[in-house]
Write a structure and sequence with these properties.
CATH architecture of the largest domain: Alpha-Beta Complex
InterPro entries: CTDL_fold, DinB-like, DinB/YfiT-like, EgtB, EgtB_Actinobacteria, Sulfatase_Mod_Factor_Kinase, SUMF_dom, SUMF_sf
Number of helices: 9
Number of strands: 12
Distance between the termini: 36 Å
Strand order of the largest sheet: 10-9-8-11
Order of helices and strands: HHHHHEEEEHHEEEHHEEEEE
Radius of gyration: 22 Å
Helix content: 25-40%
Enzyme class: oxidoreductase
Number of domains: 2
Oligomer: single chain
Strand content: 5-15%
Structural class: alpha+beta
Shape: globular
GO molecular function: gamma-glutamyl hercynylcysteine sulfoxide synthase activity; iron ion binding
CATH superfamily of the largest domain: paralog of FGE (formylglycine-generating enzyme)
CATH class of the largest domain: Alpha Beta
Largest sheet: 4 strands, mixed
Organism: Streptomyces sparsogenes DSM 40356
Keywords: Iron, Metal-binding, Monooxygenase, Oxidoreductase
């Protein structure tokens, strides 16, 4: 799929939608078959649902949108709609619901998927906003991948021996020393999209933004750099924190990123059931917005605004065009970015030179979600579609924006315009950050 609009070949669209659905289901299967039924039905943290809830919720959303809304079919299991309504039941309460047991949940999602593939095989992919360019099928593939990422977070929170394995990411650093920061020239650029066929409502519409010149880190902040903030008393000094951030640090007694602990004069972390030394050259992960903001202040810098982040990721100063990705319009490959749960950790900072932006900024896509300075707000001309609960109900000062995806994000749910959001206290997510600063006189 290109940025110029829907693929004119309906069979190519059909193949793309089917591949996205099958890829998501294979990942779901991996995440739900590597543990026993007790782990599937347990709540490993009040922040997360039982894995079996996510599994059946995936099938229920697929049924509601693709079988009922798109194909006009009768409901298969209308009595479970309320059970798997994410807005009706907070995560902490979901273990008490009458959830489908694992075997029944698997049967249900398999039946839904079989019917969906039959629909996809015969439906005309034009004639309405849900079917144009196979949008609803792409939306559901993204939804499943987003829940796969959520389930991967649950696996990280789960106690016990490792259930998932993956090779480490390759060290693709090219050996040449990288500048600490990159200048992004001031001026207008196009933010958001009106042409990406599977873009979600909060990414739309494309609009012009004028951004003054600024500097942004070439790579995400590393665990080693963050450790220096800790060792300099960062968690003990009020001056680096916002008021709410300092209260949160004190109330929760935070002293380091989530899953870190100090032992024998070194930092260790727990990663998917394995305790290992923190790698100082990797991007720091599992930090909240408050922690990212405090580090940036300590470093004499700040978090980039959302517009700055997107300009650094998409704007090509040579022709003024906004790309789909930092490297261009081509879909991501393993040479571009660390995506898709191929690896269960970030790659060393400075990796993936083939994924760099025109200005040389690296790892803007994949590895770790990157906190930005901004609240989650609609773009000018925003229209909720296909339902207001996806984005609209979250707009406001409560949530902060993250960009760029992580190693846990599939390429189908990651692009230069994709917007994520979460509470500024959240640390269980695969979140990191990079810093920025204004360009001074004579630097622009």
């Amino acid at each position: 799929m290109t940025a110029s609009g829907p693929d004119p070949d309906p069979e190519a669209l059909r193949r793309r939608a089917e591949a996205a659905l099958r890829g998501a289901r294979e990942r779901t299967r991996t995440l739900t078959t590597c543990v026993d039924e007790r782990d599937l039905t347990a709540q490993h943290s009040p922040l997360m649902s039982p894995l079996v809830w996510d599994l059946a919720h995936i099938g229920n959303q697929e049924e509601q949108w693709l079988l009922r809304a798109v194909a006009g079919q009768q409901a298969l299991r209308p009595e479970i709609d309320s059970v798997y309504d994410a807005f009706e039941h907070p995560r902490a309460e979901r273990p008490a619901l009458p959830l489908l047991p694992p075997a029944e949940a698997r049967t249900y999602v398999a039946e839904v998927r079989g019917r969906v593939l039959d629909v996809l095989d015969r439906i005309e992919l034009r004639g309405g906003p849900l079917v144009d360019a196979a949008f609803a099928f792409g939306m559901i593939a993204q939804h499943e991948q987003q829940h796969d990422e959520t389930m991967l977070i649950t696996h990280q929170l789960r106690r016990g021996p490792a259930a998932l394995t993956a090779p480490p990411p390759p060290d693709t650093r090219d050996g040449a020393p990288l500048p600490a920061e990159v200048l992004v020239p001031g001026g207008p650029f196009t933010m958001g999209t009106s042409t990406e066929p599977w873009a979600l409502d909060n990414e739309r519409p494309a609009h012009r933004r004028v951004v003054p010149a600024f500097f942004i880190d070439t790579a995400p902040v590393t665990a080693g750099a963050y450790a220096r903030f800790i060792e300099d008393g960062g968690y003990r000094q009020r001056r680096w924190w916002t008021g709410p951030g300092w209260r949160h640090v004190c109330e929760q007694r935070l002293t380091a990123p989530l899953f870190w602990r100090r032992e024998g004069g070194r930092w260790l972390r727990r990663r998917f059931g394995v305790t290992e030394p923190v790698r100082p050259d990797e991007p720091v992960v599992h930090v909240s917005w408050y922690e990212a903001d405090a580090y940036a202040r300590w470093a004499g810098r700040r978090l980039p605004t959302e517009a700055e982040w997107e300009k650094a990721a998409r704007h090509d100063p040579a022709d003024g065009r906004s790309r789909r990705y930092p490297w261009g319009d081509a879909d991501p490959t393993p040479d571009h970015a660390n995506l898709g749960q191929r690896h269960l950790r970030p790659a060393p900072a400075g990796s993936y030179p083939r994924g760099a932006s025109p200005l040389g900024v690296r790892q803007l896509i994949g590895d770790v979600w990157e906190w930005t300075a901004d609240d989650f707000l609609p773009y000018p001309g925003f229209r909720a579609f296909p339902y207001r609960e996806y984005s609209q109900v979250f707009f406001g000062a409560t949530y902060k924006v993250l960009r760029g995806g992580s190693f846990a994000v599939d390429p189908v749910a990651c692009r230069g315009t994709f917007r994520n959001w979460d509470l500024p206290i959240r640390r269980q997510i695969f979140s990191g950050f990079r810093t920025a600063r204004d360009a001074g006189p004579g630097e622009a």
